[in-house]
Each structure stands twice: as structure tokens, then as C-alpha cells.
Amino acid sequence: MTPPTVELTGTPIRAVLFDFGHTLFAHAPGPAVIETEAARLGQPLSPGEAADLWAEIDAAAMDPAEVARGRDLNGEVWRTRWSVLYGLADRSVPGLGAAVDHSFHDPWAWIPYADTAPTLEGLAAADVAVGVVSNTGWDVRAPFQVRDLDRHVTSFTLSYECGSTKPRPEIFHQACRAIGSRPEDTLMVGDDPVADPGALAAGLGGLVLLDPSTPLGDPHGLEVVLEILRVR
Questions:
Q1: Cα 112 from Cα 107, distance rounded (Å)
Q2: Range of 176's domain?
């Protein structure tokens, strides 16, 4: 596992903010989802065909003109545009786009890492406030709720609800207010080396987990949060 990068504020940490995807939860990779859903529709695709199709969808999603539509800032835009983007798969298998779209918005398809629940439980036992901060256009509370993990989370600060995205300082400040902490008393934990270190500019400490290859359901190195706060 790649060692995380850590920068602390120098004051005691009393609250922790977590990113959602690939920090606390993960989803099966896009090519695997395409393979699975195509097979379910009775028109199997080879691994190479699935990978190529996913690459096309990913490239379309990251096109500057597409990004400028602001999916992360508007729930309706998110729903509409991902339907169109995943719909590119329909050229290969009719109905595949809707199936992939459903998978990526199915709360049960998002799997917590093995150390997610123990880390949240350890923080709760130590009376450390926990928040979730995510660039997203859908309600990521659902994956927590279906597994009863939302009871350990004080607040969810989601870009499409608060009108700001990481790495802008505003979203981190809103998240701190939501859990009742000062930035200098708060640690941001994420996986994105561009978006999540924006917490540093907002006056928070930062921990970036740098191992995107952690298999579904395996430990993700989250125990380091408890070690930093000395609450193990």
C-alpha cells in the first residue's frame, strides 16, 4: 500500500472530514461493471471491448465542455448528463447505459473498505466529530444509511447541495461549520491529490490516501487516522 501524505495544523485534531468515493467506500471498476451488466442483458462483451467502451465514456465525461456543465453543482444536471454519458454504451448493447447508470447509483453497489466501520466507530467512541465532504451530484448518504454507518456521521457536505466544490476553501469551511469545528482543529481525509489538499488552503490538516488499487472490501489504510488522533 502506498504511504499516505499527511500535513497537520499543529493544534489538537477534534474533528475529521472524509471524502466518500475511494476513501470510505469503493465501487467495482467501470470496465467490470460494463462486463457484468452486458452479460446480464444477454450480450456479453470481452474484457477488451468493455475496457474500450469505458474509456470512451470516461473521455466524454472529462471533456472540458462536459465538465463545464457543472454536474457536481446541480443534481438535475448530474442525473441528466450521466444518463447521456452512460448511454454511449447503448451503441454496443441496447439498455446497457441505464444498467450501468443504475449500478453506479445503487447504494448497495458501493462497498465500504474493511477498516471504514472500525475507523468511524473508533472516532465516535472518542467523541471525535465526523463529516463527509464530496464532489457529487447525488445523495451519497444512501450507502451509509443502508449499512447503518450514517449514525457515526454528524453531517454530509455535498457539492450539489452547498454550491461549492473541492478544492475551493468554501466547501471545507461549510463542512467545518456543519460539524461545529474550527478549520485548525479539523483533519480532511481523502484520496484525490488535487481536490482534497484544498483543505490545507482552508486552514485544515490534510491526509491523502494514495492507493487507488485497494480491492473492494479490503483495508484501505484508514487506521492511520486513529493513530494520528491517538484514539486507538
A1: 11
A2: 5-27+110-229
Q: b/e per residue, 175-210, with b = 16+ CB within 10 A?
A: bbebbebebbbbbbbbbbeebbbbbbebbbbbbbbe
Q: How far apart are CA 218 and CA 116, in angstroms?
A: 10
Same domain, 214 and 161: yes
**Residue 58: how many other CB atoms lie within 10 Å:** 13
What pLDDT is attached to residue 213?
Answer: 75
Strand partners, 155: 131
Q: Do residues 14 and 185 touch, judged by C-beta distance below 8 A?
A: yes
Q: Determine the Cα–Cα distance for residues 166 and 21; give it in Å rounded to an integer.
A: 14
CATH classification of the domain holding 197: 3.40.50.1000
- Alpha carbon of residue 116 to chain centroid: 13
Helices (H), the chain: 30-40, 47-62, 64-67, 75-86, 96-104, 116-125, 141-146, 159-162, 169-179, 198-201, 223-229
Q: How many domains would you assign to the chain?
A: 2
pTM confidence score: 0.93
> How do residues 21-45 score in pLDDT, each as one tens digit?
999 999 999 999 999 999 999 999 9
Q: Which of 84, 108, 132 is the last residue of a domain?
A: 108
Residue 151 β-bridge partners: none
Domain boundary among 108, 134, 158: 108
CA-based nearest residue to 160, from 72, 35, 68: 72
- Residues of the chain with pLDDT below 70 are 1-10, 211-212, 232
